[in-house]
Structure formats: C-alpha cells, structure tokens
Write a structure and sequence with these properties.
With 400 residues, this protein is of the alpha/beta class. The chain contains 13 helices and 16 strands. The strands form three sheets. The protein has a seven-stranded mixed β-sheet. A five-stranded parallel β-sheet has the order 3-2-1-4-5.
C-alpha cells in the first residue's frame, strides 16, 4: 500500500467528531499518515496516536473560498496529492463546488455534475428516489407558515420535519430532523426557517426499524464494497444519530441501493438511511449522505475492510477489486452518547438496567475507546465530566 497522506476535512468546527477519529485509526493502523483540521490546538481526536498532523484553523474561515485557500495552501506543500476525506455536509459541498481547484492538490471521487447537491438536499433526493423506483417516505415542502395547517391536516400527527439543505451557515442554526407531535410544536420548529423545511410522513416503529447502508463506488459506479446494518439505539431518542448499531446482511436493501446508485452514476463513499415500514412491508429511503458517515466503522468485513480503506485503495493505490470477504455480525457504539440514550430508555421503562449493561458489554468496537489508542477517550470523557459538573453548578445556582 502507498503511504500518500490523507486529509480528514471538517467543514464546520466539531471537536468531538468520532467519524474523523475513526478515519485516522482505520488508515493509521495501516501506516498511512493522516492529517486533519481542528478549531483548537488540542481536541479529543487530535490526541490520537494515529493522527500524524493537526492543522488548527483559528479563527475558522468565514467563507468556502477561505476554506479552499487553506486547503490549497496545505496541499501545495505536500510531495504528492493527498486523499481528501470530507466528513460533514459543509465539507462535502466545498469539495463539490471547488472541485477543479482542489483536484490540483488532492485526490477524491469526482461525481457527475449536480449529483452531490441533489442527493444532499432532502427534497431532490426524494425526487430522485421516486424517479428510479426506490421506495421513499411521502414529503411536502412547507414554503410558508400559511400552508402549514393544510399540510398537517393532510399528513397527520406525529410528523417528521426535516431541514432541506444543511450545508449553508444559516441552515445550520435550525435542527436537521425533528418529530412534531402537535400543531404548536410543528409551527414552532418551522417558523425558524419555513423555506428550508419540509414535512415527511412519520413511519411508526422503534429504532431497530432504521436501517443503514455504507458503500464505496468506483469511477465506473461499480460497488466495490457494501454492507447493511440497523440502529439499536440512537440519540436523541426521538430520532437522531446511531449510538449502538448492528451489522447484519440484508440482501434486499443492498440490491436496491446498489441499483439506484449505479443508475445515477454515483462515485465514492456513501452513507444511507432507510426505515422499514410495517404498513406496506417496504424499506423506505430517507437520507443519502454523499460522504463517509460517522458510523462507518460498524460496516467492516471479515478482512478488515471498510469504506475508508477501500476508497484509499482505489483512489491512491489503484486497486479497484470488488471486495468479496464475508460480512459477519458485529456491533459498534458511540459509547459516550450511547450511555445517555440507554439511561433515557431505562428511565422511560423501555429498557431494563441489566439489558443496558449486557448491550454495552457486547460491542466489538467503540467510537472513542481503543486499547491501542486510549487518549482520545480519556480526553473526551474528561470534557464530558466537566460539562456535567458545570451544568450541575448552574442548576444549583438557579435553586439558590
């Protein structure tokens, strides 16, 4: 394997990005040098033994052009083009909009024009799914508050409210996904940014009806690696990111998603979310993230491959072989948030304490803790403890 560098690229400040840490570990264990940008000199992820270089952006660049200038400045100083690995929506859009400038100094999958934006928008993603015969939840744009009551009467309650676009600075000030259980809740959420919200039908079911697909597609849109799994727990409980996931083969989901992404000419890493709808027995596509997802280390085959390693092998080493190692059942957790999720379920009497303990122990890999790389976990845990202590002091002050 080549030793060309990787730049793990965050588009917005996030000192606790466990996906960025996962990228450093999975490639660093192969001897690949991994650099990443941070907003502070010392973050939990930057303490990893597998992070070879930390580039501090402080203050954080104000515009995408400023970000590109910093990336190009770093890339120009390297001996050979590095693999650029965006890990959030904002970073993905920077790469999409400035691909020509960045391609001089970085390697990354080049997508068909407009596809990344089309998949990242919750609205156009749903349109693409319908166009290609992929089941998806019913959606409707809000547009303005005057239309909301009629839409709620049509969709009923509860209803999912989603931010259509989430990569611009203004859009990030509103929640990406909410579940409204009353007209008042819906109006409160939508009033923050009506033109950037849509309603999505609520599909009943527990977190384990939420399925995921992670894959890597080469320059000819062939799926070199793909795997499926489902959520066991999520945070927030009402609908959030995976805190405990189960890797399980699901041929029906994989076949349909590979067909869909091949039809639209997709290239590179992808992270998708689906929901099983017991009302009609279908798996409905809800989200497409045209980048590496924070849960990617759940999806590992028996040879140790994941989407990040396959991407590196294809774009740097020129190895475009389809991975054939079997997928074996395994569990992954984002342990710090999973504790919150589990305690919440215990308090709501939806989970017994003994079940929480067993599920916490029976995990193959954790986002923060690793026996060969313990410092990120210790740093993140210490930060969480300080945050909890400050919150407790604030509560005491309000009581006195």
């Amino acid at each position: 394997m080549s030793r060309a560098k990787v730049f793990v690229f965050k588009g917005v400040p996030n000192r606790f990005h466990h996906g960025a840490l996962g990228v450093a570990r999975t490639l660093g264990r192969l001897g690949v040098p991994v650099a990443a940008n941070d907003e502070l000199e010392k973050t939990a992820a930057s303490r990893s033994r597998y992070r070879s270089e930390s580039i501090v952006w402080r203050p954080w660049p104000a515009t995408s052009s400023d970000i590109v200038e910093k990336l190009v400045g770093w890339g120009r100083a390297q001996d050979e083009p590095a693999l650029l690995m965006p890990v959030d929506d904002a970073a993905t859009m920077v790469v999409e909009d400035h691909a020509a400038d960045l391609a001089q100094f970085f390697r990354f999958a080049r997508q068909p024009e407009g596809l990344v934006r089309g998949l990242s928008s919750k609205w156009t993603m749903a349109e693409l799914a319908v166009e290609h015969g992929i089941a998806t939840a019913r959606v409707a744009k809000v547009g303005n508050l005057a239309d909301l009551d009629d839409l709620l009467a049509d969709f009923g309650l509860p209803v999912v409210i989603k931010r259509i676009e989430g990569w611009t600075p203004g859009s990030r000030s509103v929640p990406s996904v909410s579940v409204a259980r009353s007209h008042e809740q819906a109006r409160e959420i939508v009033s923050q940014q009506p033109e950037n919200f849509m309603l999505q039908e609520y599909i009943p079911g527990s977190s384990d009806t939420s399925w995921m697909f992670n894959g890597y597609f080469d320059g000819e849109s062939r799926c070199l690696f793909g795997a499926t799994g489902y959520k066991i727990r999520q945070y927030p409980l009402s609908g959030g990111f995976t805190t405990l996931g189960q890797l399980t083969v699901h041929d029906e989901i994989q076949t349909e998603i590979v067909r869909f992404l091949g039809a639209v000419g997709y290239r590179g890493i992808v992270d998708l979310g689906l929901r099983f709808d017991a009302r009609d027995g279908s798996y409905k596509l809800l989200d497409v993230n045209p980048r590496v997802g924070s849960t990617f280390r759940l999806f590992v085959d028996s040879a140790g491959d994941d989407v990040v390693r396959v991407s590196y092998a294809d774009l740097v080493d020129g190895n475009s072989e389809v991975r054939t190692a079997p997928i074996v059942d395994r569990r992954w957790s984002a342990e710090l948030h999973d504790l919150r999720a589990g305690v919440g379920l215990v308090r709501a009497k939806k989970l017994r304490a003994s079940q929480l303990l067993r599920s916490t122990i029976s995990v193959n890999e954790r986002a923060w803790w690793a026996t060969d790389d313990p410092k990120p976990f210790m740093s993140a845990l210490l930060t969480e403890m300080r945050k909890t202590a400050r919150a407790g002091l604030t509560s005491l002050r309000t009581l006195t």
